[in-house]
Each structure stands twice: as C-alpha cells, then as structure tokens.
Amino acid sequence: MTLVLTLREAPGARVDAAALRPDALAGLTVEAIRRLAITVGRRPAAVGDLFAVSGDGGPDMRVEGDLRRVDRLGEGMADGRLELDGPAGDHVGARMSGGTIVARGDVGAYAGAELRGGLLHVRGDAGEGLAAAYPGTRAGMRGGEVLVEGNAGDEAGAGMRRGLVAVGGAVGAGAGLRMLAGTLIALGGFGPEAGICLRRGTLVSAGAVEIPSTYAFACRYRPPALRLQLLRLAELGLGVDERLLHATWSRWSGDRLELARGEILVLEDDGRRR
Amino acid sequence: MPDRGLPAGCGGCGCVCDDVRVAGASISPACAPGAAWFSQRLEPALPPSRIDGREADPEAALDAAAGILAQADAPLVYGLARTSVEAARSAVGLADRLGALVEPAGAVRDGAGGRAVALRGASTATLGEIRDRAATVVVWREDPLTTHPRLLERLRLDEAQRGARRLVVVDDRETATARSASLHLRVPATGDLDALLALRAAARGLPARAVGALTAQAARRLVDELRGAQNAALLHGSGLAAQPGGHRRVLALHELVRDLSDTCHLVTLALRRDANAAGAEDVLTWQTGFPSAVDLASGAPRSFPGPTSAATRLRAGEVDAVLSVAGDPVVELGGVPAGVPIVALDAVETATTRAARVVFGTAAVGIGAAGTVHRLDGVPVALHAVAAQARPGDDELLRALAARLGGEAQGC
Amino acid sequence: MLRIAGGRVHDPANGVDGAVADVCIADGRIVADVPGHARRIDARGMVVMAGGVDVHAHIAGPAVNAARRVLGGERRADVAMRDRVRRSGTGGTVPSSFVTGHRYALLGYTTVIDAAIAPLAARHALAELRDTPLIDPGFLILLGDNQVVYELIREAGGGTSQTLRDAVAWWLESTGALGVKLVNPGGAERWKRGNGRLTSLDEPVNELGVTPRQVLDALATAAHELGLPHPVHVHCHGLGVAGNARTTLDTMRTLDGRRAHLAHLQFHAYGGRPGGRPRSRAVDLVDALKAQPELTADVGQVMFGPATTITADAQISAVLRDSGDAAWISADTEVETGCGIVPYTYRPSSYTHALQWGIGLELFLLSPDPWRLVLSTDHPNGGSFLSYPRLIRLLMDREYRNDQLRRANEAAIRRTVLLDDLHREYSLNEIAIITRAGPARQLGLADKGHLGVGADADVTVYHDRADREEMFATPRYVIKGGEVVIDDGDLVAAPRGRLLRAGVAHDPEIERTLRPAFERRYTLGFDRYAVSEPWLLEPARRIPAAGERP
User: Fold this and answer.
1) What's the rounded mean pLDDT across residues C89-99?
2) I want to staple A181 with a disulfide (CB 3.0 to 4.6 A). Which of A200, B210, C140, C326 is the partner?
3) Is pLDDT of B411 > 50?
4) Residue C275 CB: number of other CB atoms within 10 A?
5) What tens digit of pLDDT does each residue of C345-358 get?
6) How far is the C-alpha of C360 from the C-alpha of C367, rounded, in Å?
7) What whole-number distance in Å separates Cα of residue C331 and Cα of residue C333?
8) Searching chain C, which residue's CA lies closest to the CA of residue A135?
9) Closest Cα to residue B62, out of B411, B410, B402, B408?
C-alpha cells in the first residue's frame, strides 16, 4: 500500500513540509501522520489540516494537488519512494541521500540541492539552483542522479562535487558556477555564463552554449563516458536522440582561471552545432 | 550623545558626512542629496499617524497596525536602510516574534553584492585607508560625483587634491566621474562579466579577450598598474550588482582582487546608497546569521536568495501584510498587490505611504531623532537630533508597536 | 534568595577543594547564610563551581559579524528555534548573537571577554553584546597598531609618557572597554603597505618612527602604571609560523618587569626554521613563564574539527587563504588595525594540526601554575567554545587522552613530550582554576570566578559524572546574578548581562592633544568617536584600577 496525501486547498502562504519524507513517515499510523507539525506561513499547523491522509505509512508515498507553495518535500530523505502528482515547491529532495523522488509536474528552486544520493526525476521544469550548493556551502551535490525532462533555471549544478545531472530542455544562466566535479548535461543547451570558475567536471550541451573567454578549444572526439551516461539517461526515461549516442563533440577545456581541468562538450555532429 | 553645538550628520547617502551645517534649505559643504535629505525632513511632512488617508489618533493607529500584522500569515518587514541601527534592531526583534520575512532595502537597491560575499568573502577598507594609501582607485560603473557627491573629495581624489594618484573609471556612460577620471575605459554594461574575466586572465598571464575599450593590452596595462601600485582600491555598487546575474559579476570582481592580492594590497568599497544600508544588514546578520532575505516563519532564520527574497514572495502573492520602515517597497520591490495592507513608518510621503493603510510620520534619524547608522564602509556614526519634532523616531514607534503585539507575537 | 545545599564545592580562590557546603545567594550576591524559607536546590552528589569565565574569545563586533557572512553552510545545518524565552538564531563556529549567549550559558559560562575590538567600531561591538544575553561581557580594544598611539610613543622618544597614559585611559573610557590588546604590533600597519611583513621587533614600522619593541614596551608600561585591572593582552608576532618561539621569548623578555598577558600561547610556541615544518618549543615557553611570575597566558588550544580564523594578524590570514579554497575576508580599519578571516578545519591526520593540538596539551600538562596558564581555544580560531568540555576531558582523563593521541599524526606527536607518559590529570579544582578562578584573577574581576561572600551570584552546578565531557557539557543548574537561568538543560530565563569595563581616570586635557591627530588621520569627527549612549553602555560595572602610580 502507498501512503497518499491529498492537498485539500492550495495554501495562501509557503508551507514548510520538511516532515513529509517517506522514510520518516514509514511505520507511522495515519493518525500520527495527520498530527505531524508543519507550518503554513508563520502559523504552526498539522499535516491533517492541509492534507487528506490515507493508506499506510508504507515506504512508498504520494502527494497530490497544487503543491507549488509546499516546500522541502522529501528533503533529506534516505530511503523510500516519493511521488509528487502536482507542481511542487522549493527544496524538493534537497540533501537527500537515497530513495527515489518522481515529480510528475514542475518543481521550484533548489530541487536536489546538495544531493548526497538517490534519484530525483522531474517530468516538468525545475526552478533555479537545481542540484546546486546553497550559498555559503562550498561543495554542492556529492552523489546520486538528477533528471529533469523540461527546462531548468539559473545556476543548475553550482558547486557540484560529484554525480550526474541531466536536463532534457534548456538550462538557465550561470550553470555549473564554481563546479568542483561531476557531470551536468543540457540537451536543450545552456544560457549565458555557463562554466564560470568551473574547476573540474563536465558541462555537456546538445544545444546552444556560450563558451566563456577563459576556455580554450581542445579537440573534437566521441567521449565514451558520455555515451554511457546518455544510455543511462535513456534508461531513466529521458528522451535521448539516438544520434547523440554516436555524435562528435567539440571539447573546450577550462576554466583556465581555475585548474583548466574541467570541460564543456558541445555537440558537433550532423550540422546541429548551433 | 555628542551634540555640543556639533555639526549635523547627514543621512542623504552612504557617506554619512558628519560635518554638515544646515542653513534653511541648503547645507554646507554643498551636496544635492544631502540638501534634499534635510529639506524634506526638517519640517515634518506627514501627520504623526494616519489611517486610510485620514489623520488619526496615535493609539488607534497603533491598534490598527498591530491588528494588520497579527492577522497576517506571511508578513514582510522591509526597508531599515534609511533608519537607525536601534530601529533596525527593534524591527528584526518584532519580525522574529512575528515569524516574518525580513528584507533590508540595501539588498534590493544596491544589488546582489551580498550574495557574492557569501560565496567568497571580500577585501574591504574604511574611507581613511583608501584616502591615505590607495595610489590607484578604479570606479566600476558608478558615478559617485552624482550619487555620493563628497566621496571623492573625502578620499582626496577630486582633481584638486588627487596629485599623482590615479582615478580609473570603467563605464560606457559619460558621467561627471568619468569626465574627471585619469583614465576612462568605455565598456558596455553587457560586457562587465567578460571585462572582469579578461582582467583576471591578464592577472594570470593568460590571453584576455577584448571587451569594448578594454582591449587585451588595456587589460594588461590596468593589471600592471594595480600590481605596481602596492595599494589600490576598487569602488563598485548597483551599476554592477543590480544587473541580471549581478552576484556573478561581483564574485568575478572579488576573485580579481584575490588574484592580485599576492603583490598588491587591494581593497574594495561598495557604494551603498542609503545611510544605514550597511547597518541594517549588520543587525540582521548578528541577530540571525544572514544579511538579507531572512524568513523567520519556521521559528528560526532560513535564507535562500531567490526563494526567500521579498520581491519573489510579493510577485508570487505570498505576502499578506507589509511593515515598511523608512523604505519604499511599492517602488523598490516592483509594487505591492492591492489587497496587501501596508503599515508604513517614514518621515516623508512616498508611493508606499500613499498606498499604506496605516502611516506613522516619524522623526528621521539625525534630524528629529538621535540614532546610530553604519556608513558605507561599516564605521558606526552616532547622529544626534538637530530639530525638535514632537513625534517619536522609528525605534520608539516600533517598540510601541511591539508592545501592542506583545501577547500575540510572543505566542505565535 | 537561594540556597544550593549539600553540593561538593570547588572554589580554589577561597581554598575550598570539594568540601560539602551550602552556597547561599541573596540580591545577586553570594552571602554567608539565608533564612529557612529561601528557595532550596538540592545539590547533594553534585559539583558546585562559580560561573565559567572565558578570558579570550571573539564573539562580537565587525570582524565576527563579517565572519558570519561566509558561514552560510554551517548556519543552515544548525538552526536554533525561538521560544518563550529565546530569540531564534543560527549556530556553527560563529553563532548569531543570541545563540552565542544561550550556548555559553548552557555550558555554565557566565562571563566572556571579546579579545579584539577596533575602538572605532566600539558602538557596533557594544550593540552586538547588547544582543548577547546571559553572559556579562567585556572587551579589549586594539591599540597596538594605532597610528595616533605611535605618534605619542615617538614624541616620548620611543617610551611611555603621562600623555600616553592619559590617552590609553581616554580610549578605555571612550569605548567602555575593559583592557588593551596588542596584535603583532606594527604587523597590520606593515601589511597594509603593499602586504609588507615585519622581520624583527626592532624594524621601524613604515615611516611612523617606532619599532614593535617600543610599542610593546611603551603600552605595557602605560597599562602597568595605570594599574589597569587587566594588563596588556599581547598576541605575539609570527602567529602559526615555524620558528616563532624565538620571537615569543624575545617579546617576553621585552615585557620583563611589567604585568602582561600572552594570548593563545600555543600558536606562538613553534620551533623549526621559518617556512619549514614546525616543531614544539612548549617546554621552553613553560620555563620562560616560570622565570617571569608577572606574566600570565591562555593556551589557545586547537581542537580537531571545523573552526573559523578571525584575527587582526592579517599576514597569517593570507597564508591560510592561499592554503585552501575557502572564503577569505580582509577588513582594514583606518588608523587602528587590519583583520583577516578564513574558515578552517583542523584534522588529526595533518602533521601541523596534530602538532598544534599536541603543543596545547603540552602547555597544559607542563604548566607551572594553573592560575597563570588558563583555558581557551581562542574561540573560534582554534575551535568553538562548545569544545571546552572535550578539552577538559583530555586534561582530566589520561586514558581518553592517550586514546586520542593514537589517532593523531604520529610524526607530529613524536615531536612533543606527550608520549613521555605524562601522567598528569587535572583535578576538579585545577579545572575550576583554569576555567573561572584563574581567568577572573588575570582580568582583575574581584567579584567573578569564586564563591566567597560578596562575589556575584554566578554559579554552575554539575552532575559528578565519570565522563567529564558529558559532565561539563550539560550543567544541572546555571545561576546568573542570583537567578536560575538553566534548569536541567532547559533555558528558563535569558536576562541581559552587565558590561564589565575599566574604571580609570584620565586628564580631560588629553583631548587637546588627541583632537588634531584624530582630525589628521580619521575620517570620522573627533567628537563622534567617544561612546556615551546609555542603551549601549548600561548596565555596567566599572572595575577600578589598582591606584594610579605616578
């Protein structure tokens, strides 16, 4: 059985729903879950005030409704499966270390921020700071996978240290800011100022990208690792164009103001180079 | 409070000049923003209290204001940059008890420089350091001769006192400051990040891509000048930080300082517009740990630039009451939705006081009320009252409002 | 009124070493007795001490507040909720102001001295201390790099003078400070001039016509002759640099004949060649301390884990900046000082960190006199004050200490004498000396750090637990000024503390000397410098000087 929480009505103010994570609710009775503390704006409230709760506290959990103002869903979860059936708020799956989150709609800012492990799969769009480090934390994402089928906002993957982030659509400005390592793939290309102060790690653009002045062209080649990652993304459900698996990519090394041991790969094959 | 016939301290801009003689509508030494600050506030421009546009009994106004804030689920406390440290403390105390979102106006009006500091820190100095040590001062897309008229003179960078020191201006506008510069590099605002990266590349001996007048050679020359100067300073402000992605630009500027700090003692100064922009952020930082966008709704401070910024929350309709303290959110935050009640404290009429349900005409700091402000370089300045105005200052009014909310605010 | 009954009292200042006795309190003071109807706390089986006194920490002011801005990551992981008593806040190595007061009190500390405030920013520091509840705060003002002070020393031929004495007293009165701090005198001034470095105590500081040695000598003498409650508090040259012990010993000799306090001695006890690997010279420094009875010091222990270096010694800050990838803040204050801030982590596997950790323990274990070498971590430079209980356990529990020794970098530990089977275990009385009685005496705070009749009623009651870290981390009761503020780990009240400031007279004519020098050098009007606002300065207790010598 799956625990199901259905939003009664869209809240007028932000909801801090950090309590709603599958592993924390596993084993709790429905009554206990209804009494769990959340806040609506500055008002303390209980889960039951905002959600109709049914099913049992199984490892799987589904939250339904217009959740755009419901923040921190799945934050810090270590296990279990969370499905979000409506557009969700900020910090979805932030600092999660395991388990799976599937968001059928859009998610807000800082989805998957400082991820440790597990899988965050967003069918819609993501806001700014996807899988990013919060300002003041040097190392961001350390592991796990983040998949966004739609577009993503600014500074996706900022301060990333390890892991795989893939966006089916376009990514906003400042992607990979001060990235330490890891891979950030944007099938729809990057906005301006991608790869600033990138130390190691890889930005992959199958669409447009502005190469910063502090990068240098390295070579054209078919990186085997990228092919495996694209296959993994297809396996996870991202629509990966077959041709990408055999395409040639141009490699720009940088940021030369840092260690110049990172790279931006730009799709070259069959005239699709922007 | 030092007021033995002391000159006045001016709240007209972040410089907080403290040698001002006020004579009717003009001040000396002359300064337009300073003259405006005093002339608009020496005579009270608002009734002590007003409800829905009509003058009201102060007690009734306090009750009305307390009622608005007590009923709100997501109140916003905004402004604080043109009032005292004492008032900012009272406002943040009230916000903590209420569980409000707090946004000092400086973080909006001066741009996202604070976010860059959170990432990498900064090298700063007070005015006297720059005046007495900086051989070269670079002003990046700012026009202090207009916005902070006496700043260059106080740094002895006006042409009369400059001597061999150099004033370099990077700006594509023909500003008064640019016309006074030893070197004026015309760089388009859209090229700021590339220009800063070009300078960083030049500092590292890497090829630099030209941006406007900042050719690769010009970049190398400027870097060599800064390196050779032993002591230099970089002045910046909203011209850089208020652009889209402003914090990435200010980050590049601080990284450039770090690149050059091996041989040059390089410092920066943010040209904060409001007299207490720095002080308001200092108070919020020591009380909560964050300088701006602090959401206290969960019972403890949470701050995420973007999600908890006042502009974002207002735009998304997630603020249901505003307490504005010497600020102008209607203008500075791109408007306050019609249904959201505003309680405004100010000494002058603004778009916000006109739109506010409850208005308190308060005595401005350094004019009708004493108080401390922190200059743009962080130095605390005690301002005494130069005019007797039979009305409270912001601090006193806020404490009365907090007392009115005592029970409810405490228990929330 | 309150009676703390039947506890084992450790009050070394009054010669009480664990005797079972009642501690009676009335009107915020310790009294001989209280009537039967007074509230009674049953402290049987518990340990009773005075409230803790921290002689050297960095808890308020522009430097500490700047540090908070680059510690967003720590803060988000350590939030403190508001409640009926507490304002909300955030923690980490540099907690927000309210949380700083709460957490010091939760450890049983009731007096804390901020060791480095630029006098130009005294208002900012005082405002922060106003928002740091529960502790009685005091602060030391930085005068060792002040250009106006240099002028007065130069005009007196490199020594002290009545003018300098009056100027120092004027500065203390104008800021509400408790004492005078020197940091690597001349270092900030040299650093501000194109990142220059001092090479010796006898090298003139830029063109200001004084040498570091003259500044040390003149200010130490002035403070000594003024009979300040706390002598000059000196941060020696070359902090953290291999081979700096030589300069430390030279500084100690320079201060001969005058009272002086050496800050965070551990950071200044390194042998080895400059630029090379540091060695330990703790033994030599302990000997030097034995030879100069009028010197006192605090250890400045490094504790493994996260820390934040906040220092007016901008030179070492630049070294730390370049040693990693952390944020870096430098903040120069005109005429007075510099400041460097770098978040930092000490690791047991690192040779240098393990050596620093070991040297601190050597100083404690070889210490000739607990009254003169007291506990500090130079919070948050060597570690947070929250690590004090773990440090106390290292000093009291040899088995635990030896276990920790095995985890530290072996090459470093072999450079210390810690493996020579140092048996010493601090007793409860010795801990009471280094954490309250000693610092109070060093600071000249007659009403603090002890439980004699007339003392402030700041009392901490601990369960007598074998695990000393657990014991000192969770006091059963903390009483501040006679009010129970912590009961079984729960903060039940958060009263405001009282400012501890020096009460030293000065000749008002000194302003005729200072005004022109100020107007030449500062960009703030001379008449705006002195603090006089009641909300910043009251309530306060003036600690009198010990009579003014001619």
Assistant:
1) 98
2) A200
3) no
4) 8
5) 999 999 999 999 99
6) 10
7) 7
8) C72
9) B402
